[in-house]
Amino acid sequence: MEPTDPKTTAKPTLKTIARISGLAVPTVSRALNDAPDIGQETKKLIRRIANEIGYVPNRAGVRLRTGRTNVISLVMSTEHDLMNHTARLISSVAGGLRNTPYHLIVTPFFPNEDPMRPVRYIVESGSADAIILNQIRPQDPRVAYLMERNFPFATHGRTDWADKHPYYDFDNTAFGAIAVRKLAARGRKVIAALAPPRDQNYAAHMIDGMTSAADEMGVELRIIDAVTSDNISTEVTSSVASLLAEQPDIDAIITASTSSAMAVVGALESCGLTLGKQIDVFSKEAMPFLNLFRADILTISEKVSATGEFLARAAIQSIKQPKLPPMQFLEVPEED
Fold first, then answer.
1. Co-location of 94 and 154 in the same domain
2. Could you tell me what percentage of the chain is helix, strand and coil, using 3-state DSSP and rounding each to the nearest 5?
3. For 266-281, what is the mean pLDDT?
4. Contacts of 101 (CB under 8 A, 6+ apart)
5. Which domain holds residue 241?
6. Helix, strand or coil for residue 254?
7. What is the DSSP letter of 57?
8. Mean per-residue pLDDT for 203-220?
9. Is residue 336 part of a domain?
């Protein structure tokens, strides 16, 4: 067996990139760290060379030099149903971190765990430079904790302190109002609403929008209390089927997720009702799927790909430029 040529197996370093690019090592290092004083074309050149030669930064070395990990953690519950937009959010955040020095890790926590546990661990261990959170509550203790410690973060959803921190949110007030107005225009008179869990801010926004529009349109709105749009599909189907049997005057149902919309359709069909004729279902969705499942489901799209990309940039800004105003965006659904 011939000896391996060390020239061909040596791990690429900053000096390797500097030699190929003709730039100084400090310039290469600053370009890879997205320094604002380095031009975009130079950054693209350095990143292209780094990708081509398989350069991987030594994270231990980076941390010693800068005090940073170049890691952003997406903290998420494991309780989401399979058809939820969790996977899409992970993918879009990861996409938003492409061509940056930052890497994404997903930190899960289980339904029976304290949601503060992973947040405290990340902050106290310094295992990430920033955190991205979802399932936001009005006075979310995780957000209060991070603000108190000046730890960089961004949220998918708004708290009561939204003016003070980075977020991306979908306008669920507008969604609720649009859903009620469209159903009323189709002649629906008694609308049931399968809202998100009440301890999450977007549930209150959605209910506010539906309530205002119901008063405006002169229709009756009934909030389903037994289950939420986050319950597992079998629970939603069973509960909604019982509701429809007890309240046969319901002629429309609004829900907040793809999985719960499918479960609602299963419930009404088990009751012998025809979707689009005797009863309508209106839902938001993260990808164009529901109309493949049943063409008569009424939908509004939530741009989850844009959500993740924005949150990635917002988290990076909170790390690198904490004194700037926090990045914030409210996605307003389009009404046809």
1. yes
2. 45, 15, 40
3. 97
4. 32, 33, 34, 57, 70
5. 172-301
6. strand
7. -
8. 97
9. no
